[in-house]
Amino acid sequence: MKIGINSDMGEGFGNYRICDDEALMGIISSANVACGFHAGDPIIMDRMVRLAKQKGVEVGAHPGLPDLLGFGRRVIQMDAAELEKHMVYQIGALQAIAANAGHRVTHVSFHAAMGNMVNADPDMADVVARAIATINRDFIVFSQPDAEIVRAARKVGLRILTLFLADRAYDENGHLVSRKLPNSVITSTEAVAERVKRFLDSGTVQTIEGKSIKVEARSILIHSDTPGSVNLAGTVRRVIEQGGGEVTPATVLLN
Length: 255
What we know:
It is built from nine helices and ten strands. The chain is α/β, with parallel strands linked by helices. The strands form two sheets. The chain has a seven-stranded parallel barrel with strand order 1-2-3-4-5-6-9, surrounded by four helices. Strand 5, helix 6 (148-155) and strand 6 (159-165) form a beta-alpha-beta unit. Helix 2 (42-55) crosses helix 3 (80-100), helix 3 (80-100) runs parallel beside helix 5 (122-135) and helix 7 (189-202) runs parallel beside helix 8.
C-alpha cells in the first residue's frame, strides 16, 4: 500500500516555534506550510520550503484566518469573496517564497476555522475551489472526506487527497470532536499506532463513542502542534513500513 504522511508545519512566529520542524520534515512526505495569517512569517516559510526541498518533501499552502492570537481557530465573519482573497494572498506568498528557493507549491490544505468554513458552506467552497483552479489547476486539495470543499474541488477539475487525522478523535458521524472536549486530541504513541494499524488494515477508526466507522483516506495527518508530534509521526511511519506500506508524496499517490 502507498500512503502519504502530512503535517501542518512552520506554525511558529518570529523566534517562537511550535515543534522540531527539522525532525518532523524527515518523517513526512507532504508539508502544509503556514502562510503568515494564523502562524508563520516570511523567514519561517522560507526555512520550511528550503528544508522540504532538501528532504524531498512536497510543499503545500496552509492558509488560515488572520488570527495570530487565536492560532486561526476562532471564527471571523467573512463573506465568500473576502475568504477567497485571504486564501489567494497566502497561496501567492508561499508560491513566491518557494520559487525563490527553487521549490514549488503542489497543494492546498486549509487550517482550522478557515477549513471549517469551506468544509461546511457550499458557497464558500465553490468560490475558493474556483480560485484555486484559477491559480493552478494542478494543485491538489487536501481535505477530510465528504466535505463541501471536496465536492467543489471536483466540480472544477481539481484533484483531492483525503485525510485521516491520526491524532484527533472522531464522532460517530465522522466529524472531528471539538478540541474543547476531553480526549479530543490523541497524544499517546500507543493509541496512535493502534489507530493507524486499524485504519491500514480495515479503513476504519473507532469513534469516541466506541463505534467503528469507515474513513476513506490516502494520507495520514499528524498536527505539528500536538504534544510529541515528532514521536507520533515517527510512530505512524513505523506502523506503515512494518505493515509493508510505502510512504509516498501526494503527486505520486494521485498519478
